[in-house]
Design brief:
8 strands, 252 residues, eight-stranded mixed β-sheet
């Protein structure tokens, strides 16, 4: 009898311990879940750590200045100093502006790409004012405008001598002008790349100098594609595109 009573009491003791363990385990898990669920309402130390980690990982690049970003791009392209020359290749079909640089007597190295943030017109050269076309050809930079209504801008020297020569042959006048690479996301015949990206390019252009910048504007990337010219009214397009192809040979 005594053994039975002892065994019964021992069993109750074990059951009590198990119930206490499982009850408290459930309680603590509920508490952990409650903290996570309510963390936005009652910020905790854990919540702040998570938020800080997200900020560091997700916004690390956003915290860099435009100068720092372009310097990083240069370093990745093995530039120890700033390039002595720049070539900007605007690809209308791809809607990309490629940036290439080289040191004195060196090879061309790809630095970065900027996506167009807007586009107007269609493939084919600019022929007149108001046609909304981005020009096609080989150009330079006339000046840098720090007070542009599109944040910052680089003015392309359209029309160039080739544009004027072909216009004279076809008796075209009012060729238009004020073609820019600029910030923002609006355009009529220009190349917008957004405010943050134009800050990078503008800084680099100032370092290199506008006399050392070439701009190639092409309907497509002739390194990988071809075009079929159906417009027989302007037979000089073939000559223009051959000129562009020759200029693009070094940029591969």
């Amino acid at each position: 009898m005594k053994n039975f009573i002892f065994g019964f009491i021992f069993a109750l003791f074990i059951i009590s311990i198990l119930l206490f363990y499982f009850y408290n385990k459930k309680f603590y898990f509920q508490k952990d879940i409650s903290i996570k669920r309510e963390s936005s309402k009652y910020p905790s130390k854990i919540t702040r750590i998570v938020e800080r980690n997200i900020t560091i990982v997700k916004n690390r690049d956003e915290n860099l200045s435009s100068k720092q970003k372009i310097k990083i791009a240069l370093a990745k392209s093995d530039f120890i100093l700033y390039p002595t020359e720049l070539t900007l290749i605007g690809l209308k079909y791809e809607k990309i502006l490629e940036v290439w640089g080289r040191v004195k007597n060196g090879k061309w190295r790809h630095i970065t790409n900027y996506k167009f943030t807007a586009f107007s017109g269609r493939l084919g050269p600019k022929l007149k004012e108001g046609d909304r076309q981005i020009p096609e050809g080989i150009y330079g930079i006339s000046y840098l405008n720090p007070n542009s209504k599109f944040h910052l801008s680089l003015k392309i020297n359209y029309p160039n001598s080739f544009d004027k020569k072909m216009a004279k042959k076809e008796k075209r006048v009012n060729l238009g002008g004020d073609i820019m690479i600029h910030g923002s996301n609006r355009t009529i015949g220009c190349i917008p790349i957004g405010d943050k990206k134009i800050e990078e390019l503008y800084f680099l252009a100032k370092k290199v100098g506008i006399k050392n910048i070439k701009v190639i504007l092409s309907p497509v990337d002739f390194r990988h594609m071809e075009v079929e010219i159906k417009n027989q009214k302007h037979l000089w397009w073939r000559e223009l595109y051959n000129n562009i192809k020759r200029e693009m040979i070094n940029f591969k």
